[in-house]
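Now for a specimen:

…
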Amino acid sequence: MKILYLHGWQSVPGGVKPSHLQALGHELIEPALPHDDFDLALRIAQTALEQHRPALIVGSSRGGALAMNLRAGEIPLVLLCPAWKRWGTAHTVKPGTLILHALADEVIPYADTLELLANSGLVPETALVTVGYEHRLADAAALAALAAAVDR
């Protein structure tokens, strides 16, 4: 599956999570996103979306905020600890969005995701996977949950 993967703030393409998805056979589009200019990062992500027309968008932390602010139409979203309160203007996600978040996330409060789901009229039972033990979601259980979310 072709996936647009949007990395987090102070992260780079080729990290643990996108490498895991590539190892599973997915084709990843991973633009390098500037850390200090959200609007430029959003334009780069939008251009990548329009050029490559992925089947899915995965956004990690700040990349999740970017994904929420894209004009993505019906392309589904998988968000990893989305930092929506820190960046962008979107305060809701579309139906069918799935969020993975660690309860003990030390960077983005788990409560932010519960608020985002409530804003969006979505229920945690169908739109949230609580997994991992910290913000990076790079442990084996979190990577397995990411693989399952992508393949749903």
Summary: The chain has a mean pLDDT of 97.
